[in-house]
UniProtKB/TrEMBL annotation:
One GO BP annotation of this record: lipopolysaccharide transport
Main localization, broad class: membrane
Protein name per Swiss-Prot or TrEMBL: YjgP/YjgQ family permease
Manganese recorded as keyword: no
GO cellular component, one term: ATP-binding cassette (ABC) transporter complex
Pfam families: LptF_LptG
Cited InterPro entries: LptG/LptF_permease
Biological source species: Defluviicoccus vanus
Source superkingdom: Bacteria
Length: 408
């Protein structure tokens, strides 16, 4: 890269970095507002806050990178055009194709970064985020247990009469749990407190001086002589009893892979031949092709951005060019999401639903860049932007004239 390339890159990088930072920050804050109750109700809220921020950053960076690249290149070349530098370079023999080379290189770098983020970092960060939220929910059990309030925790219903302020222990505890088999357990205790198992950190409720009553059906089918099945009742008096708050697997988050979005690109490619139990083949194929299409689309974004950035010289053209670029990217992402859903449902194949829109987007980007680079008369994009700008200006002047005209 020579001096010209570095100069153009500097013009692109600044708006790109600002757009990326703002987009990721807005998306993070929107999600964190919904998780505020969990964060405030967990132990060590500051640590959990920064963990969630770190684990969500790759996901939102993958979403914001294409749009930030579009804005960075568009604003950078628009400013070069407004300052007359594009015309000066062309007069000295440096065409638009040569001027756009740094933007294309930046697009390739962003493509590699997006591939690493979307293909590998995002699956792991998504799983880590889910596990942190799960852990935060488990540590917030003491917030749910309040005096004279029935708390639903998993399959359990817990009621406590009071909390001793000096120790934080519970008084007069009532617990009811119903299993899928139809069995139920009722426990009453004089005292209780919350603790964690040393092995895996499972939330445990310790109960003292109480009675445990287990009610279960000995037989769910009528007997041969027509008598109904018997019901068994077991009564246990205890001095201390411990029970896990969220079932036998509490405290242990599920293994990675429960969601197709938690697989890396390599894993999706391998599993497409033999999907794991509980995961549909269409889901794996749609996820794999959707990620590949997202990455394959990024190198064409700088070409579209250069065309839109050089579409007009007036300030209004610049505003409409930015709006048009954002609308194109948003509409394109919506089309890809729709195609992904169609592939998941088995309605169409990935080529028609995902790769065909990508090829159309690439063709439009290449054609727009070619029109601007070759300076073909009556370029479509500048004409459309100028026509919209002139029409809106005419409407504003007419409205102002109607306002100033006194009523008869």
């Amino acid at each position: 890269m020579n001096t010209l390339d570095f100069y153009v890159v500097r013009r692109i990088i600044k708006p790109l970095a600002i757009a990326l930072f703002v987009a990721v920050l807005v998306l993070l804050l929107e999600r964190l507002l919904r998780l505020l109750d969990i964060i405030l109700g967990s132990e060590g809220p500051v640590g959990i806050f920064f963990q969630i921020m770190a684990y969500l950053a790759p996901e939102y960076a993958g979403l914001a990178l294409p749009m930030s690249l579009l804005l960075g290149v568009m604003l950078g070349f628009n400013q070069l055009s407004r300052d007359g530098e594009v015309d000066a370079l062309q007069a000295s023999g440096v065409g638009v194709r040569r001027q756009a080379r740094p933007a294309i290189l930046v697009g390739l770098v962003i493509t590699v970064a997006a591939g690493i983020i979307v293909g590998y970092l995002k699956p792991f960060s998504r799983y880590a985020y889910q596990s942190v939220v799960y852990a935060a929910t488990e540590t917030a059990l003491n917030v749910l247990l309040r005096p004279h309030v029935f708390a639903e925790i998993g399959a359990m219903t817990v009621f406590i009469d009071g909390i001793r302020p000096e120790t934080g222990t519970f008084t007069d505890v009532f617990l009811y749990e119903r299993h899928n088999s139809g069995d139920s357990v009722v426990i009453t205790a004089r005292d209780g407190d919350l603790t964690r198992a040393q092995e895996d950190g499972t939330p445990m409720l310790r109960l003292f001086d109480g009675i445990r009553v287990a009610v279960g059906a000995k037989s769910s089918q009528p007997a041969a002589n027509g008598n109904t099945g018997e019901t068994t009742v077991g009564v246990l008096h205890f001095n201390e009893l411990r029970t896990a708050m969220t079932g036998e697997n509490a405290g242990l988050f599920r293994p990675r892979g429960g969601d197709r979005r938690e697989y890396t690109l390599d894993e999706l490619w391998t599993l497409r031949m033999a999907p794991p139990e509980g995961v549909r083949l269409n889901d794996l194929i749609s996820e794999l092709n959707h990620r590949l299409v997202q990455m394959a689309s990024i190198p064409f974004i700088p070409l579209l951005a250069v065309a839109l950035g050089l579409a007009g010289g007036r300030r209004t053209d610049r505003i409409y060019g930015i709006a048009a670029g954002l609308l194109i990217i948003i509409a394109y992402n919506q089309i890809l999401d729709l195609g992904k859903n169609l592939v998941q449902g088995g309605d169409v194949g990935p080529f028609i639903a995902l790769w065909l829109p990508m090829l159309l987007f690439a063709a439009v980007s290449l054609w727009s860049f070619h029109r601007v680079a070759e300076r073909v008369p009556r370029q479509l994009v500048p004409i459309l932007l100028s026509a919209v700008s002139e029409r809106l200006s005419w409407l504003r002047k007419r409205q102002a004239a109607d306002t100033d005209t006194p009523a008869a």
